[in-house]
Amino acid sequence: MADYRDISQQYAQGAIKACILINAGAAAALLTQSAKFIEMDKPAITAGLTCSMFLWALGTVAAASTWILAFLSTRYVDKSERENTLQNRHLRTSDLYMLAGVIAVVGSLVLFIAGCLTLAVSMRGIS
Asked: Which of 19, 25, 56, 124 has the greatest number of beta carbons closer than 10 A?
């Protein structure tokens, strides 16, 4: 029978890695082309580049911080199993860290999309 705890952890790891990859990859791709955009000397494009880089950097940080939140969540589950009390506050704490991790991953995805949209809007004026 499948171990759903292990499977869910693998999905979570994949989501974290994907969020880091798309945000950091977008920033790296933009950096390789930034000199050409800056040469165009259009303030709207430069502002869009800067804002997109900032959003993707925040997205990378949000995704990377999810690893810490997941670690803390797991440690509190372990602590709850060791102490085995009736009112297990450790499981509630673990659930809060897990929720924070989910919010961080979703936030990372939102920041990636916001960075893409910001860049797209700033490129409208290119002829």
From this structure: 56
Phi-psi region for residue 93, left (φ > 0), alpha (ψ -120 to 50) or beta? Answer: alpha
Contact criterion met (CB below 8 Å) for 100 and 19: no
Residues belonging to the chain: 127
Helix/strand/coil percentages in the chain, nearest 5: 85, 0, 15
Residue-wise pLDDT for 71-84, tens only, equals: 998 888 888 888 87
Cβ distance 55 to 19 under 8 Å?
A: no
Q: Is 88 exposed, middle or buried (0-12, 13-18, 19+ CB in 10 A)?
A: middle
Calpha distance 81→100 (Å, rounded): 21
CA 6 to chain centre: 21
The highest-confidence range among 6-10, 40-44, 53-57, by mean pLDDT, is 53-57
